[in-house]
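Can you give me the bound-state structure? Components:
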Amino acid sequence: MAPRKPRVRKPNGADARLRRTADATGNTDVDYGPLENWIGFHLRLAQTASFQAFTREAKGMALRPGRFATMLLIGRNPGISQTALSRANSRDKSTLSPVLDDLERRKLIKRVRPKNDRRSYRLELTPAGESMLKELTACAERHDRNLDSIIGPRDREQFLGTLRKLIAELS
Amino acid sequence: MAPRKPRVRKPNGADARLRRTADATGNTDVDYGPLENWIGFHLRLAQTASFQAFTREAKGMALRPGRFATMLLIGRNPGISQTALSRANSRDKSTLSPVLDDLERRKLIKRVRPKNDRRSYRLELTPAGESMLKELTACAERHDRNLDSIIGPRDREQFLGTLRKLIAELS
DNA sequence: ACGAGATGGTTTTAGTACCAACGATCGCGC
DNA sequence: GCGCGATCGTTGGTACTAAAACCATCTCGT
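Here's the bound-state model for the whole set.
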């Protein structure tokens, strides 16, 4: 996100003499207006940047980064239901179904029907899932250490605290 | 996202006497493990929470929140090309095409072929687009003031600064 | 028991996103 | 002029997401 080393190039179309606002490269002199100072916008940029970085970090991994939190939460909460998992992970339960289908097909998790509630599943990692999780965890730790080094230890706690406040307050 | 007012309900299936880790409500006692302290995870939660809040704020608006930054950037940079816009907005240019198709179909923007470069378009708001943007801007201002009140004026600058650092550093 | 209402999981639909590949066009060196 | 390489916008493929409709099942009041 935010073009890495944008490499300024001569605009080919619009001519800079007339309209400062509309060159074709759009690398530097774009007017962001109020966006410049809006939290929501920067939150989105930072999130996608972080996600992209994680994706690069997890390159060659057998599991896409999106699966990671899912696996970890199952590992930490064996027997959790799909609905509870979806809430913990802040995704709609309908999003989870196909993901779990895939993980189950790959023998990384198990879906067990409890006797007392035949609607729900109890989710568990298989041994293969456990070791996959270990790999991913190492990867995610590298990623988060990277973020930490960008933020710096001094700001980290406050930053995390503010994120938590936002999450809690926006329900 | 994150069901607003989760409304604690008695677990129907799993029984809390035996497994503290696996009740069906999943509201409070989920073990997040290392996720608890990872920046990336909280960044995602905060971003989606903010996005959802914005969606609620813009309820009944004719435009989805995702369109907002697009409209604003066109309004601020009349004549901008699609590629430049996609970079400014940090999205792939291919994502933009169908969005602009829609906005154009609704007569909110115009695509003008410049004479000197018949590959590109110069994007502009129509008068209808302008007034739509005004509405959305008011809406976004309410939203961002809301975020501000959660964060508090003391932490705001540092928080924004950290977001900017992350965005810049992760390219 | 029994029926109304709530809950768990799936499916469908629609929106959003990236990447790779493509045709059209442009710029530049020759 | 000519042609190579780059750029602009689009398309096709894949992936992820939420919302709503749906069925099966469970809970609870009566």
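A couple of observations. The mean pLDDT of chain B is 84. Residues 1, 10, 12-13, 48, 81-83, 93-94, 96-98, 117-121 of chain B lie near DNA strand D (CB under 10 Å from a C1').
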